[in-house]
UniProtKB/TrEMBL annotation:
Native organism taxonomy: Eukaryota, Metazoa, Chordata, Craniata, Vertebrata
Species for this entry: Phoxinus phoxinus
Composition skew (Polar residues), residue ranges: 1-10
Protein's name according to its UniProt entry: Uncharacterized protein
PANTHER family: UBIQUITIN-LIKE PROTEASE FAMILY PROFILE DOMAIN-CONTAINING PROTEIN (PTHR46601:SF2), ULP_PROTEASE DOMAIN-CONTAINING PROTEIN (PTHR46601)
Region (Disordered): 1-48, 82-101, 164-219
Biased composition (Basic and acidic residues): 190-215
Length: 765
């Protein structure tokens, strides 16, 4: 039995209660994919339902806010409507209520009083513009109401605001509109300083066109064009006036209406050659990212140890500045590039005569040429131009403007400043013309020499007219003689004359003009003289605007039906017009009579191109400086190392050490005393690496020397023109002198005159 039970009974089950539900060594069983997807769907449903609730809540709040605004709008509209419907008591009713037992005369007075108040209140209430409201409120802001302490009552009865009543007490009693003054508005003195600053010749240039005018509020002015952006001028103004705090936007807002930004049609056709050429190089270097800025004046300042434009730094006389170089990025110096330069050149042309023969003549041209070179050449030329030319050039510009501005501001009773210039010739016209008049030389021209004279208490505009087209020193002094005589007649106390002009070497900056200047004024009673030249290419001034005004007045005369066929009629017609410009007429014979006063030979002043001031205190004597200086009342200070020159006496002209007369044919070597524009087109001999080469002078520069187009050598005193022009700048020390034109020895080769060649060789040895 026991054996049977042991075989048929199953084994005992394990004790489940004593074992853990999961083995600690086994990971939990992951949920199935079906349960995971159900969970995600559930969470999305919850988020969607929550979003619907939020959206519904947002829409409900928006509707509620809209309804509240709408209710408020209609509530205010209702209140306004009820206010309009509520009729105020009439003046008569109000008077009856106030004076039940008063006599009839007093009642009548009260009716008038209440009627006036009602009328003014209604007028004031219906006005829209602040200008009209201010004028009406000024009626009630008088001394009488204030005396009897009725201002508050007037404010309440008429509906004036307390602020308006307080403002009217401070304003003028005149019934005119007074514009509100902003708290941060600038003073009239500051506004006047901004106007004077922008009108300076270094910041804006006067327009010369007769149509370059602008009118505002019936005030017509000649335009002036800004030389620089207003942002840069604002920085310059803040630097000059550090005590004046003014933003760039406010500075631009205070710009006078006649000082405008130039457009393409207003482009400057009298650009400075030095600035234009260096700017072209800077633009090319900036385009290729060799330099960081194309502002050439900022670049020249970066080469100086001081940003204050000192003479030592700008003239490269400072030992610290000599070692400074431009900041440049890395570049390949051998890469080819190109840039443009303005160059002067002499060109030979042929002119056919009536007999069929041809005659050679030389013309002087200024052209914009494309220059090829490497980045190394471009950067080297640009760096040299900044250091050798632009530094001195910019300093001279700023110094001359500042010195002459100080002179005008501190004139004494016996001084006058005369700023002169030749204007563009006026083309004479008829009021109506046939077609044939437009061809040939039917239209005559008139030459205009304009000027502005500044005394201590007045400004006088002058213009002399002539049919002669000569602009040489003889013509200049035929024009000036009439102007100086007029000034002495009008202002007998004047004895010191300061002349200001640009510096063309064929006109004002020439030895003939110096000779006349040191003699003619003394015969008129002047005792002390100075002539001040503005820097080359920067001679624009107020005299240019006088020419435009005169030509505009002449065009008005023609438009009204009168003919102006020549210069004499132009002068006569203008004299009949009411004008602030004093007019003079110069006969051609008066100009020709000045020719006989010039000696056959005059002393040439070495360094004429560098002269910026001439001082004379006695006849036939003058001193000159490289820059103007007025630190001494007698103008005899030693600033800028003045040099003295003596001319032959006016009454007894005698030969002096000088170059030959221009009409005398050149037969030998002629040493150049001074480089000037009159040498352009002449033959010269230059020295290069010890060899001699003949060439034609193309251009001159006070700093660079002479630009010469030279021939190539084919042996001893044998030269030919190369296929590619050889044109470079030569310093004065490498220019041997002027020579006659080489004579041909073959079809291609030429030689210098044998005697001249020997003289050149002796000079070099």
């Amino acid at each position: 039995m026991q054996a049977y039970l042991s075989t048929t009974t199953p084994p005992h089950s394990p004790d489940v209660a004593l074992q853990p539900e999961h083995d600690v060594d086994l990971p939990p069983t992951p949920p199935s994919a079906q349960s995971q997807s159900q969970k995600q769907r559930g969470r999305k449903r919850v988020a969607r339902n929550r979003q619907k609730v939020y959206q519904a809540l947002y829409e409900s709040n928006a509707k509620l806010e809209k309804a509240l605004r709408k209710a408020q709008k209609y509530r205010q509209r209702y209140n306004r409507l009820m206010e309009k419907k509520r009729q105020a008591d009439s003046p008569n009713t109000k008077s009856k209520r106030q004076m039940v037992t008063a006599p009839s005369t007093l009642r009548r007075t009260l009716v008038f009083h209440n009627a006036m108040i009602s009328e003014l209140r209604d007028k004031y209430k219906n006005l829209q513009s602040d200008r009209d409201k201010q004028i009406i409120s000024k009626i009630m802001a008088g001394k009488v109401l204030k005396k009897y302490r009725l201002l508050k009552m007037a404010e309440r009865e008429f509906g004036f605001s307390p602020r308006r009543m307080r403002s009217n007490e401070k304003r003028t009693t005149a019934l005119t509109y007074t514009r509100k003054k902003q708290k941060n508005s600038i003073s009239p003195a500051t506004e006047e300083k901004i106007k004077q600053f922008l009108e300076r010749d270094e910041n804006s240039r006067a327009s010369t066109g007769k149509k370059d005018t602008v009118t505002k509020k019936k005030t017509k002015r000649q335009k002036r064009f800004l030389n620089e952006p207003l942002e840069k001028l604002h920085k310059k103004f803040r630097k000059e006036y550090p005590d004046i705090r003014i933003s760039n936007s406010e500075f631009c807002k205070r710009r006078p209406f006649w000082i405008v930004k130039p457009t393409v049609k207003d482009r400057d056709t009298c650009l400075c050659k030095t600035h234009a050429n260096l700017q072209s190089m800077a633009d090319k270097l900036l385009y290729h990212k060799v330099i960081k800025s194309s502002n050439i004046e900022d670049l020249i300042v970066s080469l100086c140890c001081s940003p204050k434009y000192t003479k030592q730094c700008m003239y490269r006389e400072c030992t610290v500045c000599e070692a400074k170089e431009l900041e440049i990025s890395t570049f390949d110096p051998g890469t080819q590039t190109f840039w443009y330069e303005w160059k002067g050149k002499a060109e030979e042309r042929l002119k056919k005569k009536k007999d069929g023969s041809e005659e050679k003549f030389t013309v002087h041209l200024t052209v914009k040429e494309k220059v090829m070179g490497t980045f190394h050449t471009l950067l080297e030329d640009f760096s040299m131009g900044l250091k050798e030319k632009l530094g001195k050039h910019v300093y001279n510009i700023r110094h001359q403007y500042a010195a002459l501005r100080g002179l005008k501001e501190n004139l004494s009773e016996d001084e006058v400043v005369l700023h002169i210039d030749f204007a563009e010739n006026f083309l004479c016209k008829y009021s109506s013309e046939i077609q044939a008049v437009h061809f040939g030389d039917s239209h005559k021209q008139a030459s205009l020499h304009t000027g502005v004279a500044y005394t201590k208490n007045s400004v006088i505009s002058v213009c002399s007219i002539s049919s002669s087209f000569r602009h040489d020193p003889c013509a200049i002094w035929a024009h000036l003689s009439k102007v100086l005589t007029f000034l002495k007649d009008q202002y007998p106390t004047l004895s010191v004359l300061h002349v200001v002009s640009d510096g063309p070497t064929t006109q004002y900056r020439s030895k003939k003009n110096f000779y006349f200047f040191t003699n003619i004024p003394y015969q008129m009673g002047w005792k002390k003289l100075t002539w001040n030249f503005l820097e080359a290419g920067h001679g624009k001034g107020p005299a240019d605007g006088i020419g435009a005004a005169v030509k505009r007045r002449a065009d008005d005369i023609i438009a009204r039906g009168k003919d102006i066929p020549n210069a004499r009629v132009l002068f006569e017609e203008l004299q009949q017009q009411k004008s602030a410009t004093e007019l003079f007429y110069v006969e051609p014979e008066e100009i020709e009579s000045m020719d006989i006063l010039v000696p056959s030979e005059l002393q040439t002043i070495r360094g004429t191109m560098k002269i910026h001031q001439i001082i004379s205190a006695s006849p036939s004597q003058m001193s000159w400086r490289i820059l103007s200086c007025f630190c001494s009342a007698t103008h005899d200070c030693k600033c800028f190392n003045p040099e003295t020159v003596m001319f032959q006496h006016w009454d007894k002209p005698s030969p002096s050490t000088s170059t030959s007369h221009p009409d005398t044919p050149q037969i030998g070597l002629l040493h150049i005393v001074d480089l000037n524009e009159g040498l352009i087109g002449q033959w010269c001999a230059v020295k290069y690496d010890g060899d001699i080469y003949p060439g034609i002078i193309q251009d001159t520069d006070v700093y660079s020397g002479a630009l010469v187009k030279t021939m190539s050598s084919a042996g001893l005193n044998r030269f030919f023109w190369p296929l590619r022009d050889d044109i470079i700048w030569y310093q004065t020390r490498n220019i041997i002198g002027l020579i006659p034109e080489p004579v041909p020895v073959t079809k291609r080769h030429k030689e210098i005159n044998v005697s001249v060649w020997k003289e050149i060789c002796e000079t070099l040895n």
